[in-house]
Amino acid sequence: MCNIEYHYNKQRKINQSLRKIKLFIASSLDEFIARENGDIDWLPKNTVSGYDDFINSVDTVIMGKKTYNQVLTFGDYPYKDKKSYVLTRSNDYRYNENIEFVLDAEKLVKALLSDTGTNIWLIGGAEVISTFVNLGFVDEIILSIVPVVLGKGIPLFKDIEKEVKLELIKTTDYDALIELHYRVLK
Fold this sequence. Notes:
Blueprint: H1 2-18, E1 21-28, E2 32-34, H2 51-55, E3 58-64, H3 65-72, E4 83-87, E5 99-102, H4 105-113, E6 119-124, H5 126-134, E7 140-146, E8 154-155, E9 166-173, E10 178-184
Parallel strand pairs: 1-6, 1-7, 3-4, 3-6, 4-5
Antiparallel strand pairs: 2-8, 7-10, 9-10
């Protein structure tokens, strides 16, 4: 019995160290992820980027309710092959068989990191990003900078409670954007 418990705890620690939560997102040059009304019409269409490689590296997606509602306006839910979670403060949501709605980010992350799987994509939006950064849950940030200045909009980071140090891992220059890949130093 003791040996089994040791093996379980050891395996749980291995899973936690292998699974990473990655923020993969685009922003304007002035660090907005959307217009004030949530519109993302300024993002380049059909451009070469690291998205395809990234999406193939994750098996789980986490997003906020506003982002989820916006994703639903694009047509069919695009992440049907991923385990999907939507963080919400209420039970006022449209049912979707592909989604699990969750109230507690901390409890969700602890459960995901103790389970097997590959990487986890933190999609957004701004409130969810701030929550995850403030709780120290983000392991990597992959930021695509789009060459546009919006002037105002929804900021990439808001209400961050403490300094977060990053290490630049890689920079990739695509046709219509620059991708910066950072490791969060903990």
